[in-house]
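Long-time lurker, first post. I've been practising inverse folding by hand and with some scripts of my own, and I keep getting stuck on stretches where the structure tokens seem ambiguous. Below is the full token string for one chain I'm working on. Before anyone asks, I'm not after the true native sequence, just a reasonable design that respects the backbone. If someone could post their per-position residues I'd love to compare against what I wrote down in my notebook.
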């Protein structure tokens, strides 16, 4: 199994609230497409942050999980986190941009590399 697919499966195992979204994704895509899955996942995380919904995915724990994954240095995992999570976070002035201030050190560094203007 490729590292990026393993990332999605580990993410869903760690956050069971994502199981329905994952199942729908696998059904619709006829398999796991990590970058496509992450598009919806980013929206879920940002909405959780903005709405502070206790029944949504725990955005704080998600950031810790992704930070840990990024620090492992697996190229295909880092690519998904950088291009399909960090890149799609809200821009300055958009609802949810404050989430960026909660990124761990490795994700902050990558975020600044790929989006130097925020």
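-- Answer (accepted) --
I ran through it position by position. Result:
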């Amino acid at each position: 199994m490729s590292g990026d697919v393993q990332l999605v499966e580990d993410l869903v195992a760690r956050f069971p609230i994502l199981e329905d979204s994952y199942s729908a994704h696998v059904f619709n895509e006829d398999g796991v497409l990590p970058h496509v899955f992450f598009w919806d996942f980013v929206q879920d995380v940002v909405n959780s942050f903005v709405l502070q919904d206790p029944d949504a995915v725990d955005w704080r724990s998600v950031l810790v999980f992704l930070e840990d994954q990024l620090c492992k240095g697996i190229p295909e995992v880092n690519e998904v986190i950088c291009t399909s999570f960090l890149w799609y976070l809200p821009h300055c002035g958009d609802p949810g941009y404050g989430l960026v201030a909660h990124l761990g050190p490795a994700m902050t560094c990558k975020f600044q590399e790929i989006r130097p203007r925020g």
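A couple of notes from the structure itself: Residues 3-114 form one domain. The chain has six helices and no strands. Happy to go over any region you disagree with.
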